[in-house]
Design goal:
Blueprint lengths: L11 E5 L1 H8 L8 H9 E5 L1 H12 L7 H12 L2 E2 L4 H8 L8 H12 L4 E2 L3 H6 L3 E2 L1
Parallel strand pairs: 1-2, 1-4, 2-3, 4-5
Helix pairs in contact: 1-4, 5-6
Length: 136
């Protein structure tokens, strides 16, 4: 995957769901659609700070082997992935409206993308059903 650059013609901001961050870290690019790969190559990439927390949770329950800081630092260096810096209050106010799921991680991750009116790359079928800018 190429690195998105600020000076490039861009689709704009694109947010990544937790499992997409893991796929990129594990270099499982074949799991992504060609459209998602294009977005990744031509956009500024963001993740919700809740992705960091979810990665920590997955690490603690031994579902992933690498620490979140290792994963996120490598992706910052390799693809310029950065944490969204939206107001926590604004994100939570948006997440409260996402009543289509009880999954707190999903509610907040989607809310972060919604505030930016940005695509969210995710394989989660529930998110795809309820967030019109979700793609895989």
């Amino acid at each position: 995957m190429g690195m998105a650059r600020a000076g490039k013609s861009q689709i704009d901001k694109v947010h990544l769901d937790t499992h997409i961050v893991l796929w990129l870290f594990d270099k499982e690019l074949d799991r992504l659609s060609s459209r998602s790969k294009e977005y990744i190559d031509n956009s500024v990439l963001y993740y919700s700070p809740l992705v960091h927390l979810e990665l920590q949770y997955l690490y603690e329950i031994k579902r992933i082997r690498d620490k979140p800081d290792t994963i996120l630092t490598e992706l910052l260096v390799n693809i310029a992935l950065q944490s969204s810096e939206l107001s926590f209050d604004a994100v939570i106010r948006q997440a409260v409206q996402n009543t289509w799921t009880r999954d707190v991680f999903d509610r907040v991750i989607v809310a972060d993308a919604q505030i930016n009116n940005a695509p969210l790359i995710t394989a989660d079928k529930t998110i795809q059903k309820h967030y019109k800018k979700a793609l895989i």
